[in-house]
Amino acid sequence: MRYERSDLMIGTVREGLQALVEGQHGDPFSILGRHQYGDLTIVRAFLPGALSVQVVEADTSKVLAELETIHEGGLFAGVTGSTTPYLFRIRWPDAVQETEDPYSFAPLLGDLDLHLIAQGTHYELGRTLGAIPMEVDGVEGVRFAVWAPNARRVSAVGDFNSWDGRRHPMRLRPQAGIWELFVPRLTHGERYKFEIIDAHGNLLPQKADPVARASEAAPSTASIVASSKPFRWTDEEWMRARRADLIGDGAISVYEVHPGSWVRITDEGNRVLDWVELSQRLVPYAESLGFTHIELLPIMEHPFGGSWGYQPLGLFAPTGRYGTPEDFAYFVDRCHQAGIGVILDWVPAHFPTDVWGLARFDGTALYEHEDPREGFHRDWNTLIYNLGRNEVKGFLIASALEWLEHFHIDGLRVDAVASMLYRDYSRNEGEWIPNQYGGRENLEAVEFLRHLNSIIHDRCPHAFMVAEESTAWPDVTKKPEEGGLGFDFKWNMGWMHDTLHYMQDDPVYRKYHHHAMTFGMIYAYSERFMLPLSHDEVVHGKGSLLGKMPGNHWQKLANLRAYYGFMWGHPGKKLLFMGGEIAQETEWSHDASVHWDLLDRPDHAGLQRLVGDLNRLYTQEPALQFGDLHHEGFEWAVADDAENSVYAMLRSAEDRSAYILIASNFTPLPRHGYRIGVPVEGRWDVVLNTDAAIYGGSNFGQGEAWTERQPAHGKAFSVSLALPPLATVFLRQKQ
């Protein structure tokens, strides 16, 4: 039976059809798909370029209807007389395609999902929004979903539809501002973006998916449909062994790495290593040096490599520069098999302004603030997340959980916390908006950080959170319920600046700045600190750590060895950026390798060996761990000998069953018969001397010392030591 065109257009208006053809219609499901109008069952499809379209029964392939062209732009319609599942048989100029109708599927996201997203408490966004391969009504395909509440129309675009935003417009779920669409017969590996028309009818640049779990390698910008197949982890033993009570009191020694410049293959165009290669080379290297953790500069997808990852746009996707998400999971798995934890740098403070990213995502300031006095970082030319918005807070928390739960990450180091906490951060008077009480504190950021850390510690008790916070903001590492921000550790930037400034002085002048090395202990237990010698200290013209040391080459190395000894003896968890362990002579370049050829020189190889021995001593000696966070485990044995530039620290185990004495001489003069008071009588063995010949030193010193009943420094016993020049020695009380 033949029907009039007016019959096939029933329930529509000409303007609506024209809007659909032009890609302007915000409710495609009202026109497309199967609709019942009284006794008529009408199917409509928008397939520009198709020569003909048949509706066929899914089970039998019986032709139910031959669709007619009702608009020359590619809109087809016909009466089927059937309500059974159906397929389209589409004849294109060069092929015939059979596929299900995307507009035949009911809404997929449940009301609870939508409620939680709007509330900002849906912590599985990586499995809810974005592109999720799944089976719906027995049909394999990909569900696309994206938050764009102020858009007029949103479409999924990709290679599957020639990047034509008219072909797959999505359904709006208005209660949460979520647009969704199931596209049959797609699978993982597809490239895609979202095409958005804003509320004023303007076509925006096609947007990458904010919740994409995979992305093209830069400079390409498309999102990629990631596989939903679970990764086959083999780190069960590691996961079982992780316990929250070990996070604080055990040894934590972190090797900070930029994956793209740890090793470059120069004879292959200076290419970077991928995750599989890094698992084969970086993991055993870090293990051989005794590091407990590898910390990666941000590996979330980011457009500009020169930002080192600190301007990310894909907070759910490992960057495509080094391989697939499965490759990254393999790297983490290999770390865990080697007994090494993985920390990721994570950036919830700001994001870049690239038009295909989050900036004015649906034509409005959706993720950022509208007012640049709140929403723009002039230091970095980036946009600031609007932490007063529930959906944004939920997006960020879900990102953090994606790494901790789905990639088995052991900790996150939160970047630029200070910039989040202060509304006037890097702003002059009149260039910022006070909080509701007229103050400079960012109350929304405070609430967000507390909530973030509470959720993470509840869901991931094994994981720890580290704050890069450079101000005197109080209680960064105190629990939220006690008024703190809830971090587990805070980078001790003050210690780093003070001690590096001291080490840069010529030894002749160090006595005038003696307090720089002791000042950190005044506040050492006000927070739970990590001592960082990070990438920030070896870039932007600051030179290398070795280059900061005074003297000739031998003296520079001796100073650096002594400094490392002091750092590993000092309370606080340890962090060292790559290249520091071999005394790289020039500052870090993200476009080049660490200068591994230095290891051909015995003095640089010796410093590398020292770092490994310091790590092993730290992890083996409870006396070097307890005082990291507990003041009972530390005391100055010598703190006031400015004239000789000598310091001595006494570290003890929790039950006082073991002691370690650490003595540093920061002058090039050996000290003979230097007496230090100790709490226990008997023999003290030198277990590490940074001046040992195996480290490139002069091999001055002694192997042991016996106490004498000669009081010193308030102790009844003392030892007489031969302190090497520009060196630190560790002595262990003989049990």
**What's the tally of helices?**
16
Q: Rg to the nearest angstrom?
A: 31 Å
Proportion of residues in extended strands: 25-35%
- Structural class estimated from helices and strands: alpha+beta
* Integer average pLDDT: 95
Q: Helix coverage percent of residues? A: 10-25%
Q: List unreliable stretches of 5+ residues.
A: none
Distance between the termini: 100 Å
Say how many strands there are: 37
The major β-sheet equals: 8 strands, parallel, barrel
**Could you give the order of strands across the largest sheet?**
15-18-21-25-26-27-28-29
Shape: elongated
What is the topological layout?
Blueprint: H1 5-8, H2 14-21, E1 33-37, E2 40-46, E3 52-57, E4 63-71, E5 75-79, E6 86-92, E7 95-100, H3 111-119, E8 130-136, E9 139-147, E10 151-158, E11 171-173, E12 178-184, E13 191-198, E14 223-224, H4 236-241, H5 245-249, E15 253-257, E16 264-265, E17 271-272, H6 275-288, E18 293-296, E19 300-301, E20 314-318, H7 325-337, E21 341-346, E22 350-351, H8 372-375, E23 376-377, E24 382-384, H9 390-406, E25 411-414, H10 417-421, H11 443-459, E26 464-467, E27 489-491, H12 493-504, H13 515-518, E28 529-533, H14 545-548, H15 553-569, E29 573-577, H16 602-620, E30 634-641, E31 646-652, E32 659-665, E33 671-678, E34 683-689, E35 704-706, E36 717-723, E37 727-733
Parallel strand pairs: 15-18, 15-29, 18-21, 21-25, 25-26, 26-27, 27-28, 28-29
Antiparallel strand pairs: 1-2, 2-5, 3-4, 3-6, 4-5, 6-7, 8-9, 9-12, 10-13, 11-12, 13-14, 16-17, 19-20, 22-24, 23-24, 30-31, 31-32, 32-37, 33-36, 34-35, 34-37
